[in-house]
Amino acid sequence: MSSETKTQLETVQGSGAGSCCSSDGSCHDTAQDGPTAGVTTVYTVTGMTCGHCESAVSSEISAIDGVTSVQAVAATGLVTVVSDAPLAEAAVRDAVDEAGYELTGTA
């Protein structure tokens, strides 16, 4: 392996590429990264304390028709949802309840 190839490989490995968790502690599916067209709504959810909580909330909200992206961050209690059209808050509340947490409103 040339020194140039080795340097490139170290740069990629050191950059966090392939990691599902960002530096702020939030975990997300890398397929959801990047610009997404649609309606973005930020909700406040109480009770999330870890990556498992984020995953449970994201999974339930992702099942709502029209949702294209969800990012939950336990540290802030914020859940960012991108959808094709505005979502009924009752549907999001039901999904969060199903995950075992409480939707307290929009941020």
Salient structural properties:
107 residues, alpha+beta, Alpha-Beta Plaits
Strands of the widest sheet, in order across it, are 2-3-1-4
The value of Rg in angstroms is 17 Å
Q: How many separate domains?
A: 1
- CATH class reads Alpha Beta
Q: How helical, in percent, are the residues?
A: 25-40%
Largest sheet: 4 strands, antiparallel
Poorly predicted residue ranges = 1-33
**Average pLDDT across residues?**
78
Strand content: 15-25%
Report the count of strand segments.
Answer: 4
- How far is the N terminus from the C terminus? 51 Å
Overall 3D geometry?
globular
The CATH topology annotation reads as: Alpha-Beta Plaits
Query: What is the helix/strand order?
Result: HEHEEHE
Q: What's the architecture, going by CATH? A: 2-Layer Sandwich
